[in-house]
Design a protein that fits this description.
CATH topology of the largest domain: Rossmann fold
Largest sheet: 7 strands, parallel
CATH class of the largest domain: Alpha Beta
Number of strands: 14
Number of domains: 2
CATH superfamily of the largest domain: NAD(P)-binding Rossmann-like Domain
Structural class: alpha/beta
Length: about 325
């Protein structure tokens, strides 16, 4: 199969790219060439998807599948429909499990759970992308498939405060400083390693029966946020000094956390993966968070340049803790 990834070298997509090559897929990667990630065996196309010259180059190929890992607006979907309507047998877009109904009316999430998120613009934009593609499929037969990852990690630390590409939370844990866990720490969340996600995703590429369908691909392991933070601390042989702070209080102090927190991580969610397992029978998530986060932190430890603490993030964490401490007293 001849497959194009728009993106393909990010936190979620790198492991999928490598698995595609390992499975004999003729993989092309379109990106701007700014990330220092090498996918041995893939063909690199350096360019911008919005550049007419790049678009002309892409339209000169016939693709068995095109995957857009970096679509964030309805306009991105409309552009891709124009570009690939006549030279693509399957188009897969990366949406988000945060699109699912918030607050949830039922704790078990399936692909038929309503899409509704009044808290987070990011999620509403992803819903708009899905609406656009679904309309094009229904009216014109555009061969779309939608994939909704939940919180997926490999080269990021998957926590709301002081993590992701920042190293603040690790430095705070090592120093014995308090770390924020939203709510009372008992809400459940699902975190998925990118290698596990890749197994399900690659099984959908070229899958005729997946056309017109939406899937989420997640681990079956659901952990509380306390357990998640304790596992991170254990991976570096430390203890977590957890401070529980209500999510709505955090959002008032830090408006930037409003969407991601109240529109996603503050809610308990358990994903029913029956559908992806039905379409891709070999799919099984096998990397528990306690093992996967150790691999991630070992990756950070390999290069001091990856261990960057953001002073603004540090000030923000301290500010939230101090302000809540005054109120709690």
């Amino acid at each position: 199969m001849k497959v194009l990834f728009i993106g393909g070298t990010g936190n979620i997509s790198t492991e999928t790219s490598r698995l595609c090559v390992a499975n004999g897929i003729d993989l092309y990667l379109l990106n701007r060439g700014t990330r220092k990630v090498s996918i041995v065996g893939a063909t690199s196309i350096v360019g911008d998807i919005n550049d007419p010259a790049t678009q002309k180059k892409l339209q000169s190929h016939q693709w068995d599948c095109v995957v857009n890992w970096i679509a964030f607006t309805r306009e991105d979907a409309e552009r891709d429909i124009r570009l690939f309507a006549n030279n693509c047998k399957q188009y897969i877009v990366i949406s988000s499990a945060s699109c699912y109904q918030k607050p949830v009316s039922h704790p078990i999430i399936t692909e038929s759970t309503p899409l509704y998120n009044p808290f987070w613009e990011y999620s509403r934009n992803k819903i708009a992308i899905e609406d656009c593609l679904t309309e094009s499929y229904r009216q014109h037969g555009f061969p779309m498939t939608i994939v909704r990852p939940s919180l997926t990690y490999d080269t990021v630390i998957p926590v709301p405060f002081g993590g992701w590409t920042e190293y603040n939370i690790i430095q705070r844990i090592k120093a014995g400083l308090p770390i924020i866990v939203h709510g009372d720490g008992t809400s459940l969340f699902t975190i998925t390693h990118a290698s596990d996600f890749a197994k399900g995703f690659v099984g959908l590429i070229g899958h005729q029966q997946a056309i017109g369908h939406a899937f989420h691909i997640t681990s079956d392991e659901s952990l509380t946020w306390d357990q998640i933070h304790i596992a991170i601390a254990s991976a570096i042989d430390c203890e977590a000094n957890i401070v529980h702070i209500p999510s709505d209080f955090i959002a008032k102090v830090d408006p930037d956390a409003y969407g991601s927190l109240l529109g996603d991580k503050a809610h308990s969610v358990i994903f029913d993966n029956s559908k992806i397992k039905q379409f891709v029978p070999d799919f099984c998530a096998t990397i528990p968070f306690s093992k996967g986060i150790k691999q991630t932190l070992d990756w950070f430890a390999e290069d001091s340049k990856r261990q960057l603490s953001n002073p603004k993030t540090e000030d923000n964490i301290n500010n939230i803790i101090q302000r809540y401490g005054h109120i709690a007293k």
